[in-house]
Amino acid sequence: MISEIAIGKTMATTATMMAAKEALKIHEIVLYPDPVLAKMCEPVTVFDAALRTLVEEMFESMYAAQGIGLAAPQIGLLHRLTVIDVSYKKNAKEKLVLINPEVVETRGKQVEEEGCLSLPEIREKVARAAWVKIRAQNEHGEWFEVEGEELLARAILHEIDHLNGVLFIDRISRLKRELALRKIRKMQKNGEW
Questions:
Q1: What ranges do the domains of the chain cover?
Q2: Which homologous superfamily is 28-189 in?
């Protein structure tokens, strides 16, 4: 009898969790040249259940778009909030929520290809720090520090750029940027953007 009750509770909890997961909104990704992408974001000051739901929705939206990072302006919100998962769902411990992030220190240099969910089909080599240390708040408002190197450093710096109204194409040469913008205009003209 006890095992039947325990099984029933477990099944009810699982069903509730699945229903909550299904209720999460998948946000549409804002595409360049939407003006929200060029604006400085405001600090997050309220750490409540609505923020935690938004964080989960951002992760789900990022996964749906097949990305490893997503910043609030990319879903039309001017909040200093970003989510990152360089493992792309393979390791839950690698999921990062960065609220009001501040770069504390950077070292070295790496030049690698970057893409962006707000600039689909556009990829260019971008110079970034090879290592970064940042300070940020989690979804409960608690401050923490995190260090990253290589891909994680690149993702952190890329997403923080979004919070400052900077896109990766702002960090490439004028000629490469003009070629990328030409490609975007052509795709817009063909209805592909």
A1: 28-189
A2: Peptide deformylase (3.90.45.10)
Check residue 12 and give its pLDDT. Answer: 47
Find the catalytic residue in 145, 149, 159, 178.
159
Question: How many other CB atoms sit within 10 Å of the CB of residue 175?
Answer: 8
- pLDDT, tens only, 15-45: 444 455 568 999 999 999 999 999 999 999 9
Catalytic: 102? no
